[in-house]
């Protein structure tokens, strides 16, 4: 790697650090807003521990895909799924533009590799992309069920959230069933407190 490439790589890494402070709609178990970086970390951990049950998924593609799937949020932030649903506007185009801005300092080959992984995730056409999408939704629901959420948190939104993705594999569907039971329980408890 030459000096220019190294400088660009370090500039990219400094910009990507923003993901440590960009927050999501999920709350930690201590009541602090979850960061995008924290979500991405546990998403990768989820993929790693489920590996034995997922069969012939290419982890050399899956794990990098999970690392880059929310990189664009370093620029534009996270738009929670309920807000996307209410607006009817998909965040994909803006998030891709933000991703390209973030990746700009990187050497061309690395820029292309990371963009291709993000595009594959968004297209949802490969086995790895389908598993990545499902895991992303499951980790989000897991966090919502585990977090110390605000009193007005809409647990029932999660009962339909990502359903089209989480049935791609029997193991993921089984996890979804468990999380849906937990979600319904949290929703009932929340309703009782109101």
Largest sheet: 2 strands, antiparallel
Please bin the fraction of helical residues.
55-70%
Strand content: under 5%
* Termini Cα gap: 59 Å
Radius of gyration from CA coordinates: 17 Å
In the CATH scheme, the class would be: Mainly Alpha
How many structural domains in the coordinates?
1
Number of strands: 2
| Sequence of strands across the biggest β-sheet | 1-2
Based on the coordinates given, report the CATH architecture: Orthogonal Bundle
Instruction: Calculate the mean pLDDT score and round it.
Output: 94
Estimate the global geometry from the Cα principal axes: globular
CATH superfamily: Hypothetical protein af1432
Task: Write structural notes for this entry.
With 194 residues, the protein is mainly α. It has a single domain (3-193), classed as Hypothetical protein af1432 (Orthogonal Bundle). The protein is built from eleven helices and two strands, in the order αββαααααααααα. It starts with a helix and ends with a helix.
Task: Tag the structure with descriptive keywords.
single chain, 194 residues, mainly alpha, Hypothetical protein af1432, two-stranded antiparallel ribbon, 4% strand
Secondary-structure blueprint:
Elements: H1 3-16, E1 23-27, E2 33-35, H2 36-50, H3 59-68, H4 73-76, H5 81-87, H6 92-103, H7 108-123, H8 127-146, H9 157-160, H10 163-166, H11 170-193
Antiparallel strand pairs: 1-2
Helix pairs in contact: 2-3, 2-8, 3-7, 3-8, 6-7, 7-8, 8-11
């Amino acid at each position: 790697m030459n000096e220019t490439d190294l400088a660009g790589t370090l500039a990219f890494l400094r910009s990507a650090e923003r993901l440590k402070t960009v927050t999501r709609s999920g709350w930690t178990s201590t009541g602090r807003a979850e960061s995008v970086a924290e979500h991405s970390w546990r998403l990768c951990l989820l993929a790693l521990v489920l590996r034995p049950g997922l069969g012939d998924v290419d982890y050399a593609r899956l794990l990098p895909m999970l690392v880059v799937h929310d990189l664009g949020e370093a620029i534009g932030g996270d738009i929670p799924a309920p807000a996307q649903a209410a607006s009817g506007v998909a965040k994909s185009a803006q998030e891709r533009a933000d991703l390209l801005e973030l990746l700009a300092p990187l050497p061309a080959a690395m820029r292309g590799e990371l963009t291709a992984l993000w595009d594959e995730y968004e297209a949802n056409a490969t086995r790895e992309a389908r598993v990545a999408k499902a895991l992303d939704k499951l980790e989000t629901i897991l966090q919502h069920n585990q977090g110390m959420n605000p009193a007005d948190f809409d647990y029932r939104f999660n009962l339909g959230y990502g359903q089209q993705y989480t049935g791609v594999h029997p193991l993921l569907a089984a996890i979804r069933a468990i999380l849906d039971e937990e979600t319904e329980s949290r929703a009932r408890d929340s309703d009782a407190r109101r």
